[in-house]
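Posting for a labmate who doesn't have an account.
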Amino acid sequence: MSPSKASKLRPLHEQVADSLGHYLGQLNGSSPCDLYQMVMDQVEAPLLNAVMEHTGGNQSRASEILGINRGTLRKKLKAHGIAAP
């Protein structure tokens, strides 16, 4: 990674905070509903996809990386329509 690109990287929590601030700012005074669940739904599927790709589809290794048991991982993969190898 080039030094200029590395200097542009920001921690994930900062990126999430910026995105949520932008989202809430666009509501023009309206109150969001079920914000927690909406954020979890938006974040969980890409997280699972990235970890499954990183592990080459190895669910045991993915569950260790995620800190959840393998059965929970399988349930979440199914809920998000992510094909298990």
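Reply:
Got it, the structure tokens are right above this. The chain is about 70% helix and 0% strand.
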